Here is the input.
Amino acid sequence: MNSKYKITKFIKGKLEKIEDLISIEEPLEISLKFKDKEKWITQSLSITMRTPGHDEDLVKGFLFNEQIIQNLKDIENIESFGDKVGQYNIQNKILVTLNNSQNVNISKIKRDFLTNSSCGVCGKSSLDALEIIKKDKTPKSNPKLSKEIIINSPSTLRKNQSEFAKTGGIHASGLFSSDGSLISLREDVGRHNALDKMIGDSLANNYLKPNDQFITCSGRLNFELVQKVLMTNIGLMIGVGAPTSLAIDLANRFDMTLVGFVKEDSFNIYTNNQKVIVS
Here is the structure.
C-alpha cells in the first residue's frame, strides 16, 4: 500500500518538484479478549507500526512468534473495529478473541505485555499514546546544508563504522555539524537502538546544538526514528533509504527537513527544503 507525495529532488545539479510513491506506515493496535479463570478480559496488548493490509496474518504471526498461542486453533475470532481514520480511511484497531484452550499462555500475556512496555511506539498500550510530548517546532531555517555535505554524510558514516566493515550487517546513526564533521556515532543491529545510543552519548557529553547540527541514519526512516530525533530539537535528518508516509507527515508537522535516497549525484527532499543549499 502506498501513496503519492509531492517532494523536491536534487538531480543533475538542480532541484525538481516531482511526485514520489511512499510506503504507507500506520499504527495497528492489537487487543486480546481472553478468559482468565472464569472471567472474560478485553485488554489492549500492543501497538505495532505496519503497512496496512493482511492485518490478520500479521496478528496471527505475532501471537504465534510471541508464543501466546501454540497454533491457530487457539484463536476463536479476529475482527477489525473502530472508526476508519486518517487520510487513508482505514481501521487501525483489531481484536483477537482467544478460545478457552489450555494452550493459551495467560501468564505470558500478563508478564510480558500488560505489566511491561517495550521501547518505542510498539510497547504503548493505546493509540492515544502516540501523541508527541513535544509541542514546539524545530528551527525552520537552520542548519543550512550544502548538497556536498548531504551527499557525503552517508559515506562518512559508513567509513567511521567499526563493525560494519567486519560484518556488513549493522546499522549506524551519526550526529554531524553543519560543516559535515562527525561528532558522535553509534552502531547496533537495530536502527532504533543505534539512534538511542547516539543520542545518549550526545546528551552525556553535551554535544547537542540543534541550530548547527543534523543526524544521518543508515537504512530507511520511519515514524519512531523521526520521533526520537525531534526530541533532540534537531530539525534536519538524512537517511540512506526512503521514509515512510508517517515519517513524512510527522516531519512536516514540526518543520523538520527530511532527506532520503542519498546517492553520489542525487537525493530527495521530502519536507521543508529551506535548509538545503544547492547553488
Notes: The domain at 134-277 is CATH 3.40.140.10 (Cytidine Deaminase; domain 2). The chain has two domains: 26-130, 134-277. Confidence is low (pLDDT under 50) at residues 115-120. The first helix runs from residue 55 to 65.
